[in-house]
Design a protein that fits this description.
By secondary structure, the chain is an alpha/beta fold. It has helices at about 15-25, 40-50, 95-100, 110-125; strands spanning about 5-10, 30-35, 60, 70-75, 85, 100-110, 130-135, 145-150. The protein has an 8-stranded mixed beta sheet with strand order 3-4-2-5-6-1-7-8, sandwiched between helices.
Length: about 150
């Protein structure tokens, strides 16, 4: 069973943090799905990832070469990926966490609804036995603030 990491964004925007996490994932040779709930928002992320520092090879789901994309932005399943990153409140199930090497949930700490959704996801996933870690950038650097079911 893989771990789920919750990233509480308070200093950097989702596209900045996502790009950093995607670079780390690619360095691990993981194929990544970035799941969002809104196709227009995924279009925006697609543009931001192409404009950022460095090269992040990726594509939007529904293209002719989805299976070949190292990073796939999608509103759907992530069956053939080692890592799943959920943004903007996209749902993640305990079964998905179990089958992935890593699952990341990124949420905007300045948005009360996003924080409430993340808390619900934390409870749902940890109550199902998923190992979870909560990371905050509030101090200016990423620090692990809580963990559950990790064996630490």
């Amino acid at each position: 069973m893989g771990d789920v990491y919750f990233y509480h964004l308070t200093r950097n925007a989702v596209d900045v943090t996502l790009a950093s996490l995607l670079n780390r994932s690619l360095a691990q040779s993981w194929r990544v799905a970035v799941r969002g709930g809104d196709p227009a928002r995924l279009d925006w992320l697609d543009g931001r990832l192409w404009q950022g520092d460095g090269f992040l090879p990726h594509g939007l789901a529904g293209g002719p070469h989805d299976a070949r994309q190292p990073i796939l932005l999608t509103t759907g399943a992530a069956d053939d990926r080692e890592c799943l990153m959920a943004v903007d409140g996209a749902e993640v199930t305990p079964a998905e966490v179990a089958e992935k090497t890593r699952t990341c949930i990124l949420f905007d700490g300045t948005d009360g609804e996003a924080v409430a959704r993340a808390r619900t996801q934390w409870k749902t996933l940890t109550d199902a036995g998923c190992a979870a870690r909560y990371w905050s950038e509030e101090s200016g650097k990423w620090e692990e603030k809580a963990s559950k079911n990790t064996g630490d």
